Amino acid sequence: MNTANQYLKAIYLVQEIEDGPASTGAVAEMLDVSPASANEMIGKLESDGLCNHEKYKGVDLTDEGIVRARDALQNYCIIERFLVEVLDVEDFRTEAQQLESVIDETVAERLDTIIDRQPQCPDCFDAEDDVCALLELEADAAD
């Protein structure tokens, strides 16, 4: 089950990839849900003032939605980096996706004290590759 923060993060990333409003289909695909499910959650996010959805144009995050999406993305990056750098988890993307809905901000902050998070986080996240770009650089350097 995807949380509101996961939807906000997905909308934010799709907006980066599409360089404009996020299409509902792309958000649904990123979260591996049906377009109907995505539309339902986007409607809830819109009623909470976190995004604006215009049929056939797509979804834009409001300023508050962007803040929440970036916070969610930063927490996701922390989880990814912890899984790779501390636990050496091979399938870290799958694990991070499963953990992001159950690890709250307090736990993420505590994990952050263990990893060496870079100041550019969450801008270090590569939306198209769906991974922290810094992890990719570290993996490339290890080859």
From TrEMBL:
<dbReference type="InterPro" id="IPR050536">
    <property type="entry name" value="DtxR_MntR_Metal-Reg"/>
</dbReference>
<dbReference type="Pfam" id="PF02742">
    <property type="entry name" value="Fe_dep_repr_C"/>
</dbReference>
<dbReference type="Pfam" id="PF01325">
    <property type="entry name" value="Fe_dep_repress"/>
</dbReference>
<dbReference type="InterPro" id="IPR022689">
    <property type="entry name" value="Iron_dep_repressor"/>
</dbReference>
<keyword id="KW-0805">Transcription regulation</keyword>
<dbReference type="InterPro" id="IPR036388">
    <property type="entry name" value="WH-like_DNA-bd_sf"/>
</dbReference>
<dbReference type="InterPro" id="IPR036421">
    <property type="entry name" value="Fe_dep_repressor_sf"/>
</dbReference>
<keyword id="KW-0238">DNA-binding</keyword>
<protein>
    <submittedName>
        <fullName>Metal-dependent transcriptional regulator</fullName>
    </submittedName>
</protein>
<keyword id="KW-0804">Transcription</keyword>
<comment type="similarity">
    <text>Belongs to the DtxR/MntR family.</text>
</comment>
<feature type="domain" description="HTH dtxR-type">
    <location>
        <begin position="1"/>
        <end position="62"/>
    </location>
</feature>
<dbReference type="InterPro" id="IPR001367">
    <property type="entry name" value="Fe_dep_repressor"/>
</dbReference>
<dbReference type="GO" id="GO:0003677">
    <property type="term" value="F:DNA binding"/>
</dbReference>
<dbReference type="InterPro" id="IPR036390">
    <property type="entry name" value="WH_DNA-bd_sf"/>
</dbReference>
<dbReference type="InterPro" id="IPR022687">
    <property type="entry name" value="HTH_DTXR"/>
</dbReference>
